[in-house]
Design goal:
CATH superfamily: Aldolase class I
Order of helices and strands: HHEHEHEHEHHEEHEHEHEHE
CATH topology: TIM Barrel
Bound molecules: S-adenosylmethionine, 6-(5-methyl-2-OXO-imidazolidin-4-yl)-hexanoic acid, iron/sulfur cluster
Radius of gyration: 19 Å
Largest sheet: 10 strands, parallel
Distance between the termini: 44 Å
CATH architecture: Alpha-Beta Barrel
Amino acid sequence: MHTDAQEIRHNWTPEEALALYSQPFPDLIFKAQSAHRKFHNHLEVQRSTLLSVKTGGCSEDCAYCPQSAHYKTGVERHGVLPAETVRAKALEAKESGSTRFCMGAAWREVRDGKDFDAILELVRTVKGVGLEVCCTLGMLTESQAARLQESGCYAYNHNLDTSPEYYGEVISTRTYQDRLRTLDNVRKAGMTVCCGGIVGMGEGIADRLGLLVQLANQPEHPESVPLNMLVKVEGTPLAKEEQVDPLEFVRLVATARIMMPEAMVRLSAGRMQMSDEMQAMCFVAGANSIFAGEKLLTTANPGDNHDNHLMSRLGMRYRENRECATSVAA
Ligand code: SAM
Ligand code: DTB
Ligand code: SF4
């Protein structure tokens, strides 16, 4: 059994992942924190701001998602936002200390034409503000990925969500293979990959680890791995799922940190349901990034006052925007 905490590997087995995950909690946290310190500044947390630039009415049936047209959730739909609206949000995000701005669209896939052209314009706008640009727009072809990259999109978020075995329980309108193909197109275009999943959809530990094995065994590890705790939204099929055990979540963060030591591990959706103590444990386990602000895409997020206070209580700080180090909030 090989569970050295500080190697970059692409040949993880499910058994190895389970052995890592299941070791005594202090040993797991120690290994994760050691890997973390080798590759990252353990006191720094990077912030991204999300904005839903096209909301609701999505044709996919992802059982967790408030934006799927298959469920009645009360999310208000809107088409692609005007560039001036987005510029104002991006400036606000930069002022509050975010280094990355992530634009989400409730699409199954990108279609060439007016809407995609409008998105490319938004990418140029946000880049012009001096923030790292990330998009999450659903499936992409190779040429669409290239156009996004040429317009200044730095990262693309496209989640595998869970293990290949559990995937069919959550989504029926696309396959795991579809997702992998888009990730491949993103890589070919030279964008960085942001890819992770969701915990709390009724999956077992083996599925959570199955997701990490999929991610870690890609030819390159994703540069960013968002770990979302399900936000239970009334009207979706997963609205009544059981709450996730916080210590299981922390274990998963630590395991992700060890398996993909260079990646940014992002404590993503679900922070409203996490105690400050749980978030602190996640940072110690190697999480080094959060979504900032009062809103994720359509649901609530803790907001700057809460997060700034937590950072200060922990003696931690936000990563500065290298392009504009002066405008970072404490
Ligand atoms: N439509 C695009 C797609 O699916 O890739 C982009 C937007 S989609 C909302 C982005 C990601 O948000 C999903 O892949 C999923 O992992 C996450 N997500 C959506 N609803 C969620 C929820 N209720 N709780 C936690 N994560 C969620
Ligand atoms: C990711 O993994 N989580 C973010 C981001 N990537 C796009 C989205 C979370 C969405 C949570 C539900 C909502 O606010 O609509
Ligand atoms: Fe939601 Fe994206 Fe699934 Fe559409 S494809 S239902 S926006 S997660």
